[in-house]
Amino acid sequence: MSYAHYHMGSGSRTSRRSLEFGKTHVVRPKGKHQATIVWLHGLGDNGLSSYQLLESLPLPNIKWICPTAPTRPVTILGGFSCTAWFDMGELSEDGPDDWEGLDASAAHIANLLSTEPADVKVGIGGFSMGAAVAQYSATCFAMGRYGNGIPYPVNLRAVVGLSGWLPGSKSLRNKIEVSHEARRRAASLPVLLSHGISDDVVLYKYGEKSAQSLSSAGFRYITFKSYDGLGHYTVPREMDEVSNWLSSRLGLSGSS
Predict the structure, then answer these.
(1) Runs of H (alpha helix) within the chain
(2) Entry's SUPFAM superfamilies (predicted)?
């Protein structure tokens, strides 16, 4: 299948190493800095859109880091180049995943978080393809390593995925249940997933399956929210739920 060959070919590996991430935008905390969250945009978008989505949320104790993905050819777009955290073809249960691209993006995000103060809780969130990377990062945290075996360096405290999916969902349980430490880390990490029932880009069933896969792999604190009539976008009601969940799970004081 040409999609698989695209990932396996040495040419794609060579070009991927030279990909550069775009501009990072930062929303500074308006109050006491208690948490830092990297927020990941969807396919073809950029960090400025994330910044604009997050800057008005009533979360004065959170610093938001909003990176921009590299521009790369994307298989599902017929090779058209746009911002993308990894390459992807049609979503399917058996579809091949671009592990190299996922690892590169997950490592970039972990690097952004690695310089935060020790007393600041850190997390990852995202929309659509960004949500896929956030969930992939959650699995890297649980296993203690990226897919390529390099140790995962960040102690995640929360993960949020809106209108996304979980790469590698089929094999996740087998990878986590063989390790006591992986099971312990999975059980410690709160994850919020939400999905519009009317989503015609990333179908609702993929969001539902993500929650089921994470739960069966040992992630005990999974919250899955579904929204009637919601397509492939965010709405204020959904972002209010995100704000409330983060405040609760991260123990934010809400004080300035």
Answers:
(1) 2-8, 10-17, 47-54, 99-114, 129-143, 169-177, 180-188, 204-216, 236-249
(2) alpha/beta-Hydrolases (SSF53474)
Q: Is residue 205's pLDDT more than 80? A: yes
Q: Give the phi and the psi of residue 205 in degrees, each rounded to 5.
A: -60, -30
Provide the 8-state DSSP code for 200. T
CB 61 within 8 A of CB 253: yes
Task: Encode pLDDT of 78-108 as tens digits.
Answer: 999 999 999 998 876 666 678 999 999 999 9
Q: pLDDT of 123-174, one tens digit each? A: 999 999 999 999 999 999 999 999 999 999 999 999 999 999 999 877 787 7
Nearest to 8 by CA among 99, 89, 127: 99
Question: Do residues 40 and 113 lie in contact, with contact meaning Cβ atoms separated by under 8 Å?
Answer: no
Residue 70: CB partners within 8 Å, gap ≥ 6?
A: 19, 20, 21, 22, 83, 84
| Residue 256, number of CB atoms within 10 A of its CB | 9
Between CA 74 and CA 89 the distance in angstroms is 8
CA–CA separation, 16 and 10 (whole Å): 10
CA distance 172 to 216: 9
Cα gap 87→75, rounded to integer Å: 6
